[in-house]
Amino acid sequence: MKAAHIYGVKDIQVKEAEVPALLPGTVKVKVSYAGICGSDMHEYLAGLYPIRKQPVLGHEFSGVVTEIGEGVTRVKVGDRVAVEPLIPCGRCANCRRGMANLCTNSQGYGYTLSGGFAEYAVVREENAFILPDSMPLELGALVEPTAVAVHAVRQSQLNLGDSVAVFGAGPIGLLLLQAVKAAGAGQIFVVEVSEERREKALELGATHAMNPVEVDAVKRIREMTNGGVDVAFDAAGVQATFESGIYAVRPGGEFKIISLWEKPVTFNPSVIVKTEAKISGSYAYNNLFPEVIQLLASGRIDGHAVITSMIALDDIVEQGFEQLTKDRKQCKILVDMNK
């Protein structure tokens, strides 16, 4: 089969790979769509993660089951599925605490096992989630990043009617915006440099969208909320948004970090001491795919709104990764495996 392999910084090659073996308890999926994630971009621009054990990329993907292994009972040939990439061990302390997303011995499709930027993927039956007939397969590739956003909102201290700031309006930021809106947020501020992304944020329900180059976004947010938002989310991962997020939160509020970071940041901890605000992280998701599938299928979260391009696998470098590095109008780029 043809697949995209990553070997280092700016070194992705589309070439032949072996189709993974169909084992008992697994299903073979003919991949339909796979999304380029921010974590994929991190490896492309900054180097491979230590967890990578094989080169075939792709952990946001959907497709059609073409073959089932011995012992598979829930999934059948012809089912349209979204694939959850995380494979927790089920035995470590975090798994036993119910935090499988923080498993210390986890594996994952697209990292330790062959991923979705390939014609075929073989996945465990429990990692294949059947999509409703009415749900397009391209939205199946949005389930994974949407789960990241929904988990962040669920992990936060957001309450009905609370004010929220989202820093960064890329795919995760726009999905976060929709997730906080679905959770009942009141005022929703989006801070983003790109005009196209700010416009999209307003279309999707942001009450305010600000360009931090043109206005003092933190000052404006604090003025409009009587001292700061209840919860701020960082979906950009740079020094400027980290600082802004901390100062945009009211005393006792929460600054929730979802983004991955290529560089460390610096800040004065006294800011947090004096306000008793909280800085917390959110990683991946935990048993959320069924709920997220329903949110996307029902339109409560509009996955189509974040898709800006669909490209062929052969074009994944130039029209995918390279395009995302230089074109701020791009948001979520999907690889259409049928192109």
From TrEMBL:
<dbReference type="InterPro" id="IPR002328">
    <property type="entry name" value="ADH_Zn_CS"/>
</dbReference>
<keyword id="KW-0520">NAD</keyword>
<protein>
    <submittedName>
        <fullName>(R,R)-butanediol dehydrogenase</fullName>
    </submittedName>
</protein>
<dbReference type="InterPro" id="IPR013149">
    <property type="entry name" value="ADH-like_C"/>
</dbReference>
<keyword id="KW-0862">Zinc</keyword>
<dbReference type="InterPro" id="IPR036291">
    <property type="entry name" value="NAD(P)-bd_dom_sf"/>
</dbReference>
<feature type="domain" description="Enoyl reductase (ER)">
    <location>
        <begin position="8"/>
        <end position="335"/>
    </location>
</feature>
<dbReference type="GO" id="GO:0000721">
    <property type="term" value="F:(R,R)-butanediol dehydrogenase activity"/>
</dbReference>
<dbReference type="InterPro" id="IPR011032">
    <property type="entry name" value="GroES-like_sf"/>
</dbReference>
<keyword id="KW-0479">Metal-binding</keyword>
<keyword id="KW-0560">Oxidoreductase</keyword>
<comment type="similarity">
    <text>Belongs to the zinc-containing alcohol dehydrogenase family.</text>
</comment>
<dbReference type="Pfam" id="PF08240">
    <property type="entry name" value="ADH_N"/>
</dbReference>
<dbReference type="GO" id="GO:0008270">
    <property type="term" value="F:zinc ion binding"/>
</dbReference>
<dbReference type="GO" id="GO:0005737">
    <property type="term" value="C:cytoplasm"/>
</dbReference>
<dbReference type="InterPro" id="IPR020843">
    <property type="entry name" value="ER"/>
</dbReference>
<dbReference type="InterPro" id="IPR013154">
    <property type="entry name" value="ADH-like_N"/>
</dbReference>
<dbReference type="Pfam" id="PF00107">
    <property type="entry name" value="ADH_zinc_N"/>
</dbReference>
<dbReference type="GO" id="GO:0034079">
    <property type="term" value="P:butanediol biosynthetic process"/>
</dbReference>
